[in-house]
Design brief:
mainly alpha; 4 strands
Length: about 350
């Protein structure tokens, strides 16, 4: 290319040599004062720590910390308040029952009679005793006892449901309905309703009551109570969940012997005939049934307390591990600073 001298007409043209390629500026050393030389990769910004390089701008990404595997749900609630309320209700019912069944009868006789009919059934639902039930002495005392009985059933069901809802996703939980079906002695219902005043019934009526009671007892213990107690046992992370069998099988045996022998005796006895002696119900069956029912009830309460304490401690450990993982993840996600070479 030729250029003319500006402002001079007819001036000769002079050839301009081609321009040399522009080279990038050399990378200078990092100043000791903390600044950066022009062109230095990862130069620190003003106010950065002297002698360090921001490596967050050269494509390094922090690895996410995996959250820990928790033993219980993140939304779990400690079951200890539920345990305290249920145990307080049980103690209050025991004291009120002793108070309501002592002293002399007072108040309207018909009202007391009606309350005792209801209490006869309710008391057996709470604890299988059949005819071993003390009579209420007044309408006021009876009303207090019945209210406390309902409170015991409700608080224990809520307690069990709280243990089930604390389990994480993926584990089979259990709730109020399961507890209400599995824990009360529903098999005593056919044996108590309508029999408070007139325990003598016809042979057919007795067979129907006994057969229904045996069917309910078998279904409740083998399908519901066994499954519920196993779930409660596992919810506390207790080893050997087969051990829960001792909380229901000993109680089942004497009552099944009593119901089975009663059905066998009535089925093989005609009207006006002497009962066969091959297999007859004995008082020992009822005595063992009552004693083992009380032992099973105490054992179930102990299991619930142990599981509640273990869940409470497990939740504390879960939250501690979860917080540690969150802190580690927060540190990893922060922009790291490394010393410059």
């Amino acid at each position: 290319m030729r250029n003319r001298t500006p402002g001079v007409p007819g001036s000769p043209t002079v050839a301009t040599p081609p321009s040399a390629p522009t080279e990038p500026p050399a990378l200078g050393p990092v100043p000791a004062s903390g600044g950066s030389a022009p062109g230095w990769p990862g130069a620190t910004a003003a106010g950065a720590v002297p002698g360090t390089v921001n490596v967050g701008s050269i494509g390094l990404e922090a690895e996410r910390v995996r959250p820990p595997k928790l033993s219980y749900s993140r939304h779990a609630i400690t079951p200890l308040p539920y345990a305290g309320a249920a145990l307080a209700a049980v103690v209050a019912l025991l004291v009120a029952d002793r108070w309501a069944t002592s002293g002399t009868f007072s108040g309207n006789r018909d009202s007391i009679k009606t309350l005792n009919q209801v209490w006869f059934t309710v008391d057996n639902l709470l604890l299988a005793q059949l005819d071993d039930v003390s009579l209420l002495r007044s309408t006021t005392k009876g009303a207090v006892v019945l209210v406390l009985a309902g409170l015991v059933v409700g608080t224990i069901a809520l307690w069990v449901a709280r243990l089930g809802r604390n389990l994480p996703l993926g584990e089979s939980s259990f709730g109020v309905g399961f507890a209400l079906l599995a824990l009360p002695a529903w098999w005593t219902f056919p044996m108590t309703v309508g029999l408070f005043e007139n325990p003598s019934t016809t042979r057919i009526d007795a067979l129907m009551r006994l057969g229904l009671a045996a069917a309910i007892l078998s279904a409740q213990f083998l399908l519901l109570r066994w499954a519920l107690l196993n779930k409660i046992w596992r919810s506390g992370r207790l080893p050997g969940d087969l051990g829960a069998i001792v909380l229901w099988l000993p109680e089942l045996i004497p009552w099944m012997l009593f119901l089975g022998s009663s059905i066998f005796t009535l089925a093989g006895t005609g009207d006006g005939e002497a009962p066969p002696t091959a297999w007859r119900p004995t008082p020992a069956m009822v005595d063992w049934g009552q004693a083992l029912s009380k032992a099973s009830a105490v054992g179930i309460l102990v299991l619930l307390v142990v599981v509640s304490v273990r869940q409470h401690l497990g939740m504390i450990e879960d939250r501690r591990r979860d917080q540690e993982a969150r802190d580690a993840d927060r540190r990893n996600r922060a922009i790291p600073e490394v010393a410059a070479p």
